UniProtKB/TrEMBL annotation:
Membrane-spanning residues: none
Source species of the chain: Paucimonas lemoignei
InterPro entries, A to Z: Hexapep (IPR001451), PaaY (IPR011974), Transf_Hexapept/Carb_Anhydrase (IPR050484), Trimer_LpxA-like_sf (IPR011004)
Protein name as it appears in the record: Phenylacetic acid degradation protein
Cleavable signal peptide: none
NCBIfam families associated with the record: PaaY
Superkingdom: Bacteria
Region of interest (Disordered), residue spans: 171-200
Amino acid sequence: MLKVYSIDGITPVVHPSAYVHPSAVLIGDVIIGPRCYIGPLASLRGDFGRIIINEGANIQDSCVLHGFEGCDTLVDVDGHIGHGAILHGCRIERDALVGMNAVVMDDAVIGESSIVGAGAFVKAGMIVPARSLVIGTPAKILRTLRDDEIAWKRLGTAQYHELTTRSLNTLHETSPLTEVEPDRKRIQTSTNNKPKSRQG
C-alpha cells in the first residue's frame, strides 16, 4: 500500500502508468504524471507548495522535494533526479539531470538538458541556461554540454522509463532466500549497454 497522505483536503495524484515505491511518502499537493518513477524512501511533501512531476521524470531513492507556500517545485518531462538529491521550491526543466546528493534551492531554475553535478549546491534564485554543466558548492556554470553528454543523460533516463514498467509488472514484496541458487541469473534489461555512471 502506498504511503499517500491528504492534508487540508488535498490528496496526491498518481497517474496509473507511474510507479511509486511503497516506502516513498507523498503528502498533500503532489502531482505525479504518466510514466514517472518515484524511488524507495523518496519524500514529496506538498504541505505548503505544490510539487509537480511531469511525464517520464524519475525521482530516485531518498530524494526530498518540498517548497514554500504559493510556489511550485517542478520536475519537467524526462527530468532525472539522482539518489539523495534535495529540491526546494525550484524548477528542473525538461530533460535536465540533478546528480546524487545535489541541492537545488528556492526559485532556482535548471535549464533544459542541463546537468547539475553530484554534490553541487545551487543557490536560491540561480538561473542555469539550457545545456549547461553545473558543478561545485556553491554551484557554478562550468561550460556548455556536448551532444554526447546529453545523449548519455537520455540513455540513463531511458533506463528509468524501463524500470518504471519493470517495477509495475514484476516488483513485489517477498522473503529472502537462505542461500544463493546454482546458476543464479543476473538482471537483464534492454539498456544494459549504458555507459557507467558519471553524475547520478
